[in-house]
Write the structure tokens for this entry.
Amino acid sequence: MDILAGVALGFAAWFVVRFMLSGWYTVGPNQRAVKTVFGRAQRLGDLTSLDDPIAESLRETEKERYCFPQVRVIMPGGPYFKWPWETVHKVSVATETANMAFDPESPTANRNGTVLEAVTKDQLNTGLTGQIRYQVSERNLYAYIFGVTNPIAHVMGYFVSVLRERIATFEAPRQAAADGEAGAVSVEGISINDLRKNLRDLNEHMDKECRCSQARYGILLDASLITGIDPPPDVESALAAINTAYNQVSSDISLATAAADQRIVESKRAVEIETLKAEADVEPLQRLADELTLLKQNGEAAMIAYVRNVKLSLFSRAKRVIAEVKS
């Protein structure tokens, strides 16, 4: 009996140490946790990811495939307790950064994860460099923990496929020149130039297209930053020559336009000056006409006196006077 009692006491002590004391756990500030009971995650009733606004980014054909149950998320804090038949799955929700050429399943791909290659619409094989920021979405932890085997691999694959499709079909937006003028010559129709000049639009397009990653894989793409678009070395020199030629033509057209604008301004100024001179010559005549009209209204005597005074003024300034003598 003593042996049985000792075994029972030892088993009880082992059970307390193994399951009771080790059943306590905490969740860090940058962590979220999901608890499973006999392998089944604790759920929020019958709610699914389709009931969350994140599903609005999914196409109608995708909603049935990416329908995940909503689970109870254990927030940072503790200590919490779990029973032996319960398992806690912790994930970090901190924002992480990765090279956009990184391949989680094959680290040596894409030049060891440094440059991503894509083909442009004019069949140029170009190299892309940049980064993406992402974090685990606590609004769809079921997809991240249980729904996808390697979520980041799926996200990177989706991102690369969308980017390559955009590069292959990208066309620079046509903008009308100001004031209806043709404007300077620009290097249009060369895809790499168009892409370089519209990096901001390209990044915004990628952010918009990748919003559905949160509903698909439980990972939120916070931002994408494409920083470099470089053609092969043998194409770079030819492209530089084309750009130089276009820039020279653009410079010549700009100088010619500036010279023409200057001549137009000078011509307008000359017309304004001559107009002001003519107005200055006409003004005294108009005043004289007004004065004579007023004198005529005051009687013929006033007009005769005015004419006499004018004659006297002229005689005082004249050096020689020729008078008509009546015979």
User: Anything to note?
Assistant: The radius of gyration is 44 Å. Residues 176-189 have pLDDT under 50 and may be disordered. DSSP finds ten helices and eleven strands in the chain.
